Amino acid sequence: MIRIFALLAFLSAPHAKTEQMKMAVTTSFHNSGLADVLLPAIEKDTGIDVQLLVVGTGQALRLGEAGDVDAILVHSKRAEEDFVASGFGTHRRAIMYNDFVVIGPEADAADVQSAKDVMQVLTRIAGASAPFVSRGDDSGTHKKERALWASAGLDPDGFSAWYKEVGAGMGASLNTASGLGAYILSDRASWLNFGNKSDLKLLFAGDAKLFNQYAYLPVSQARHSHVNAEAAAKLEDWLTSRAAEMLINSYMIDEQALFVFNATAK
User: Fold this and answer.
1) Which one of 11-15, 22-26, 191-195 scores highest in mean pLDDT?
2) How far apart are CA 216 and CA 74, in angstroms?
């Protein structure tokens, strides 16, 4: 009888209610594995159960425009600034960064390893008509890749013989590159966490043009009244906290850091 009363007392006692919110994040962020580290800590510290919608940056921004998520975490600065300027987001807050890297077959037929900068990398790939896999999905990585080709004075639309757009996330695109023995632009975190490397290797990195900033954008409650702005604000406070800094900076694969925390002040 005592046990029954104890159970009833436990069931009737008030418990902290977990709050839910939706956040659209990039496939590159999800593929890195960092979400598996951050989400349990977020729920423990804030009581917020963050439900992730894993898509490319372009789709994440469209989900925000439609009010289907409460916040987004993406990596395409110009598109993010347009999102805020159009009134869909309240502001843009830098959280962390890593870099893009050029991956390719170990044989490196285009000799990108000796290139002096990423412009020369792309020029050599084009000159050799070497197989190249593009995400082709309007993601932040895809946007960056297209911008780099344009900066090099090259138009990928004319590369049909060796340029393959797969319309997929980072992991699937890396798998395609692995199968084809092709070059590909990847974020460093996804590459480090990618298991099917085959004969692919990191061939080029370090150019300042390959900087890759991730930013947090709360969706505007003024535009979509149902948005959980309170939870989005709590999450932002946590993502810019010392606890987040320690977890982000200490997250490593093969003794290599995947991200660097650089949250800005409001």
Assistant:
1) 22-26
2) 7
**Residue 6 confidence (pLDDT) above 90:** no
Fold of 17-97+213-261: D-Maltodextrin-Binding Protein; domain 2 (3.40.190)
Closest alpha carbon to 27 in 179, 236, 144, 173: 173
**pLDDT value, residue 15:** 43
The reply to whether the predicted model has a pTM over 0.90 is no
CA distance 178 to 183: 9
**What is the percent of the chain with per-residue pLDDT over 90, rounded to a whole number?**
83
Task: Tokens for 261, please give them.
Answer: 């925390």
Amino acid at 112: V
Fold match between 17-97+213-261 and 99-210? Answer: yes
pLDDT of residue 28: 85
Q: Where are the domains of the chain?
A: 17-97+213-261, 99-210
Which residue in the block uniquely carries the two structure tokens 């090099």? 152
Instruction: Kindly list the distances between the CA atom of residue 60 and the CA atoms of 139, 146, 179, 216, in Å, as whole numbers in the listed order.
Output: 9, 19, 28, 12
CATH class of the domain comprising 99-210: alpha beta
If you compute the radius of gyration of the chain from its CA atoms, what whole number of angstroms results?
21
What's the rounded Cα separation, in Å, for the pair 29 and 198?
22
Residue type, 228: N
The length of the chain is 266
Q: Are 239 and 263 in contact (CB under 8 A)?
A: yes
Environment class of 6 (CB within 10 Å of its CB; exposed 0-12, middle 13-18, buried 19+): exposed
Distance (Å, rounded) from C-alpha 118 to C-alpha 104?
Answer: 14
